[in-house]
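Form 7-S
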Amino acid sequence: MSSEQGAGLRRVMLVLTVTGLGVAIYLSYVHSAGIRPACTAGSSCLKVQSSVWSQLAGVPVALLGLIGYVAILASLLAPDREGIRLATVGLTTVGFGFSAYLTYRELFSIHAICEWCASSAVILTVLLGCACTRYLRGGLRLGPGMPAARIDSGGQ
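Output:
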């Protein structure tokens, strides 16, 4: 991946992360204020937001999402190094996994889908794919005027 492509992917990830952060801020506000979330699907969002699965050990999952998006944002704003890219993969993997669990609960326990939660799940899915691509291709610098990376086939 050329450095321009890597920078473009990082920008896409930043936009996705800030969007997810906005969703998490909104849901955290709705939860803490005890107000009805805006929802085009009737009362589905309210049903999800007021369910037993809207908290983990007394902490609203929306707040956990907000913390997760802040951590992902911090990893994207840190200097581009292999360890930082790996941390981004780890953070997005945890976010994706938790979001998948919550989506499972929406479908099979709550029997309602919150469009805000679903949008966050989509954002985290795309972020995970981007983070994996960025990590796996991060060491390859094959742009104009840049030397090709050596790929070791392990003696095969």
